[in-house]
Design goal:
11 helices; TIM Barrel; eight-stranded mixed barrel
């Protein structure tokens, strides 16, 4: 009986979350925060990653790990994902109009990617927002490299945007997935970065990936940099770009505006 009760409770919880998410979509409770990306060698501000958040009326700000799986399972990720892409491009266009020339990265779910309307949606959003196509980076899960996704990736590439693989964990099989793909950027997995100080294997794998990236004209981005030691290790391996709490937490757009002003004043680096 206890087992049946726990299953019933779980089902009720899922129902409550799904119901809350439908309300969140209807009432516009989702918002974006942006985490800066920094050139590890020059300290220049080179981009931001747009991250989805949910401002729940009772629970406060909810991180995506708590609700994105439900968005995926219900199909709500399609309208929410389109809204996130449109909002990020519109914000990117505002920054561009202010004279800032940096990229905006947006995470795309597998379900979005597999949608027959996705390429058309991206093209339409770029045209309506007037955000430069070369400054938009679409980030995908590593799993898309293993599937029959080449045609969809090439269609996106033809739009003029850049393509990134998120949470990439280097290894022989994973590296082979990159060959022949239209991917422009590889973002190293956060847990992988944190293990570099303790694992010579991790360091060797990063070195191998960087060497391959030079041959394939790929950019390597390190996510989740927590401290100066990690940054220094990545610099030594010639990783070009990094993001993480060592540089800045994610912020809403108006806070990024203040960050940009302070950054340009105190870093002495071009934006």
């Amino acid at each position: 009986m206890a087992h049946e009760a726990s299953e019933s409770d779980a089902a009720n919880d899922r129902h409550d979350v799904n119901s809350d998410l439908e309300t969140a979509v209807a009432k516009g409770q989702f918002f974006l925060v942006y985490q800066p990306e920094i050139d590890l060698h020059t300290n220049a501000f080179v981009g931001v990653e747009a991250l989805l958040r949910w401002r729940h009326p009772e629970r406060g700000v909810v991180n995506p790990d708590s609700f994105v799986p439900a968005l995926e399972s219900t199909g709500l990720i399609l309208p929410v994902g389109r809204w996130a892409l449109s909002t990020a491009c519109a914000q990117g266009a505002q920054w561009h109009d202010k004279g800032y020339r940096f990229s905006v990265s947006v995470n795309i779910s597998v379900r979005q990617f597999e949608s027959s309307d996705f390429v058309g949606d991206v093209d339409e959003i770029l045209m309506s927002s007037r955000f430069p196509r070369s400054l938009l980076v679409l980030e995908f899960a590593q799993s898309i490299l293993a599937g029959a996704s080449g045609a969809q990736l090439r269609a996106l590439k033809e739009l003029g945007v850049r393509l990134a693989v998120d949470d990439f964990a280097p290894g022989k099989s994973q590296l082979s997935d990159l060959e022949g793909s239209p991917i422009d950027i590889v973002k190293l997995e956060r847990r992988f970065i944190s293990s570099m100080s303790e694992s010579t294997t991790s360091v060797a794998q990063v070195h191998e990936l960087v060497e391959l990236s030079k041959k394939m004209n790929l950019q390597i981005v390190a996510s989740g940099i927590e401290d100066a030691e990690q940054r220094q290790q990545l610099q030594l391996e010639d990783v070009s770009v990094g993001q993480g709490f060592h540089f800045s937490r994610p912020h809403e757009a108006q806070e990024i505006d203040h960050y940009l002003e302070d950054f340009s004043i105190f870093s002495g680096k071009p934006l």
